[in-house]
Amino acid sequence: MIDGFGRTIDYLRVSVTDRCNFRCVYCMPENGYPVSPKDELLTFEEMARIISIAADMGITKVRLTGGEPLVRKDLPELIRRVREHKSITDLSLTTNGFLLPEMASNLKKAGLDRVNISLDTLRENRFVEIARRGNLQKVLDGLESAIRYDLSPVKINCVLMKGFNDDEAADFARLTIDRPIHVRFIELMPIRWNLDSTDSFESMSALRGESELFQLRVTSDDGMLSDTEMRRRMVSNDVAMARIQNELGPLTPAEITTNGPARSFRLTGAGGTVGFISQISNDLCERCNRLRLTADGQLRPCLMSDGEVDLRGPLRTGATDDDIAALISEVVAHKPERHYLAEGQKVTGRGMSQIGG
Questions:
Q1: Alpha-carbon distance 266 to 261, whole Å?
Q2: Each residue's pLDDT tens digit, 96-137
Q3: Which of 25, 147, 152, 344 is deepest in the core (most CB within 10 A)?
């Protein structure tokens, strides 16, 4: 599948649930978002059918997301269904890792290739402030389980926040030296970037140059960091890279399987890599190859756009595979060239956990 800007679309992210067992301050309110009634969620049979149709159209990579996908204890069933399609060459999972110790073995047996574990701090007190649920040691145990059961390459996704955990950049990079761990720093990207904005994009960028340290503060009414606060805390990957090199030495370019949008580097003699996904300071839209299927059956061409097409309704009212394929083609045809955050684009429809970030 080729979109209107010449990009090959071969990657589908599938949210299997809009529920999560954490309440990370940049992602969800303290009390969570309203969740969809069960009858509005796609069944695994419906998800597998959509994935199969998409695979026949050229999708080769599938990532299962949420919410937190591992709250679905029956997830290995979906993995087995997807694995049956021979065109799917890469089947991966993004998880907070909390339930991995109990599930890693069954996930691997079902056919899962690899995992990305979201982890923003290696300090227990900070973990409690960010995630507001669970505990750090259980996530670290999940990381070890992923390595033990060869859900590799095992990646850690880390979001740095200015004045709170950005001093841990080198600590995370250090994990890659002796272990086959691939750390990727992802710039803080509030999906509602401009909703409460009274300042220009450029003036908020200037605020990020402040040197003050401050505590992580929830400043919005719904118990999340406000969007202004998130813009203020965004740490560019150039800053993170410089801090790592100042402490641990040079980073040299490296390539790994399933590199995705990250620019990857390796510390001297390291077994793993350090990657940077810079969707704010240097947007990656020109290389975007993905579509997103929400847990309630909406297909989206872009994370940072409210446009979506309903697949659930047609599935349940007798649509043929060709009908569904035509809808998928429509979404590909309307995939935007890039996001327009700098121009003041406002995304209002869903939170990250509801889309499947």
A1: 16
A2: 999 999 999 999 999 999 999 999 999 999 999 999 999 999
A3: 25
pLDDT exceeds 80 at position 227: no
Structure token pair of residue 66: 């949420």
**Whose CA is closest to 18, among 267, 357, 353?**
353
The dihedral sign for the CA sequence 28, 32, 37, 42 = positive
**What is the CATH number that goes with domain 11-152+289-355?**
3.20.20.70
Here the tokens at position 148 are 């033990």
Any alpha helices (H) in 266-316, and if so which ranges?
A: 312-316
pLDDT value of residue 42: 97
Which helix (DSSP H) or strand (DSSP E) does residue 12 occupy?
strand 11-15
- Contact between 24 and 68 under an 8 Å Cβ cutoff? The reply is no
pLDDT at 262: 79
> Can you name the residues that pair with 274 across neighbouring β-strands?
183, 265
**What Å distances lie between residue 334 and 9, 136, 347, CA to CA?**
12, 41, 17
φ/ψ of residue 45, rounded to 5:
-60, -40
What does DSSP say about strands 154-158 and 114-118: parallel, antiparallel, or unpaired? parallel
Q: Are 357 and 27 in contact (CB under 8 A)?
A: yes
Q: Between 214 and 81, whose confidence is greater? A: 81
Cα–Cα distance for residue pair 176/316, rounded to 1 Å: 47
**pLDDT (0 to 100) of residue 214:** 43
**Domain-wise residue ranges, the chain:** 11-152+289-355
